[in-house]
Amino acid sequence: MAKIGFISLGCAKNQVDCERMMYRVQEAGHTVQPDIVDSDVVVINTCGFIDSAKTEAIDNILQTAALKENGLVGKILVTGCLSQRYQQEIMDEMPEVDGVLGTGSYTHIVDAIEALMRGETVFDFGDIDAPEVETGRILTTPEHYAFLKIAEGCDNKCAYCVIPSLRGKFRSRGLDEVLYEARVLASEGVKEMIVVAQDTSRYGTDWPEGKRMLPTLLRELCKIDGIHWVRLHYVYPDEIDDELIDTIANEPKILKYLDIPIQHCNNTILEKMNRRGNGEYLRWLLPELRKRIPGLVLRTSIITGLPGEGEAEFIELCEFLKEQRLERVGAFPFSPQEGSEAAMMDYPDTEVALQRAQIVEELQSRIMDDYNESMMGKVLEVLCDGYDEESGQYYGRSFADSPDVDGRVWIASEEPVRDGQFVMVCIDGNIDGELTGYIVED
């Protein structure tokens, strides 16, 4: 039996894949190490979507290779999107790597590790369109929240994106399987279930009936004892219908928080991106959501500097953000991805793309300051995530804050607060874009 260390990089969906690999390894009798030092095999589960993610993955491989050279770790196995995207290149250019496992081969993790321990080289790339194989997980998040991955792959074919070539076609997990996993997680203490996929809004549309099943799934999740919050990520705007809106509005457990990646608002740019819908639809949809879901907080992602985005298109984007006043916005400068349609377009001005992303961030910081100011004096339910020794304060998140992508609420309390405990907090301040407050009686 071997000692196995894991490094998980990239998105929440990739993190779930890593948790499933860890479970399979432990189930096979191997030891999952809390630290990679002294591991017989280090599994580096990578992201390979954008340049910064590729750089992070390569840096982690090289750092682990240095540990290997000094005898502090054994074999190195690279998994995830980077390995799927650069299969032979990793083996040719990084001799320190002992094996690569593609995104269609996660279920082979135990066989791969045991092959490495026998001194063999692993080069395994299975069918990226194969159905998801159900298994357990070892949570790497705090025990009070977990990401619930409801589908794999993507059919959207956005011009700037290579995810379909790395993750395959869109495949929904079975409703019973998802609910079973949610019940197990709830029984283990998970209170916040964060629903994720490449496109959660298309859940069920790949089944023979072709029906959107996200509202049904959400209603069933809300029936599970122990689940207190249900949070939605990656809801594409063109799949939002009345049933989904009404479900979010009427189910108390579903947080009034929606992550809707829109990328842009200009019709020409959206068309070049291969995005469905247009700016007029977005200008109708977002106010309609706010009207029907009172108190809704909206998160989105924006790409600046796509080839063809001139000053007029960028000004339109800025005006759109000023009008809609989305509470959470991530701005990303366009970078051409090998194999994507957008990489074939006229070469972009990367400096302009970066400058425009910074302008969006500055604009958004003022909108967020206004939003935070509007929260002064309000009492929010906050889920405690931990305690900060330096400040002597607890911290947590309200309905408006998703882990890792949004900010924190800092909690002043004379009494101890447990991780995973819900407390009512009266907001009385705003420091560096994060809210502060003190506990009040429920």
Topology:
Elements: E1 3-8, H1 12-27, E2 31-32, E3 41-46, H2 51-69, E4 75-80, H3 81-85, H4 87-93, E5 99-101, H5 109-117, E6 122-124, E7 145-149, E8 151-152, H6 163-167, E9 171-172, H7 175-187, E10 192-196, H8 214-221, E11 229-232, H9 242-250, E12 254-259, H10 267-272, H11 279-292, E13 297-304, H12 311-324, E14 328-333, H13 350-374, E15 379-388, E16 393-397, E17 409-412, E18 422-431, E19 434-440
Parallel strand pairs: 1-2, 1-3, 3-4, 4-5, 5-6, 7-10, 10-11, 11-12, 12-13, 13-14, 17-19
Antiparallel strand pairs: 8-9, 15-16, 15-18, 16-17, 18-19
Overall average pLDDT: 95
Stretches with pLDDT under 50, minimum 5 residues: none
Report Rg.
22 Å
Total count of helical runs of at least 4 residues: 13
The biggest sheet amounts to:
6 strands, parallel
Which strands sit side by side, in order, in the main sheet?
2-1-3-4-5-6
Which structural class do you get from the secondary structure elements?
alpha/beta
Number of strands: 19
Percentage beta strand: 15-25%
